[in-house]
Specification:
147 residues; elongated
Length: 147
């Protein structure tokens, strides 16, 4: 599957389950076991959206380096995507224009999960729709400011 141009970038969980059924896996536990095994081996990546509301299965996980480098980078051409160490969420559709918008929340969540960036939120004001690059902060924000 890896780097095969004939393979889609990702599948929805529904499509994963449908595919598992086609190869003879009859129940949801088998589908999840296979997914966990492939995820552990690095063959696929479970791309979780914020708050667990969506999940896609990335069939081409090697492409994620390119995805992330468009937002978190030292490359001067892409650095404009996150001025002053801030990735503005409103810019995500243009930053990740090559990918279906349904993946954008998962890409952003991956940046947060890998601690490459931290969501900016204020108590009482909620989400500020921006992410601070980890390189801009010597110490990560406290856990209470993250969620």
């Amino acid at each position: 599957m890896r780097n095969d141009p004939r393979v889609d970038f990702a599948l929805s969980t529904k499509d994963w389950n449908r595919l598992c059924g086609k190869v003879g896996m009859s129940d949801a536990q088998q589908h999840m076991s296979a997914l966990e095994l492939f995820h552990t081996w690095g063959e696929v990546l479970r791309l979780r959206g914020p708050y667990g509301l969506q999940e896609d299965i990335v069939l081409q996980p090697a492409q994620l380096a390119g995805v992330l480098s468009k937002a978190i980078t030292a490359n001067s051409q892409c650095a404009a995507n996150s001025r002053d160490g801030l990735l503005r969420h409103a810019r995500l559709p243009s930053i990740w224009a090559d990918f279906d918008a349904r993946f954008h929340p998962g890409f952003l969540q991956l940046i947060h999960d890998l601690e490459l960036g931290y969501p900016l939120r204020l108590e009482g004001a909620g989400d500020l729709e921006a992410t601070l690059h980890a390189a801009q902060s010597a110490t990560p924000p406290s856990a209470t400011s993250r969620r």
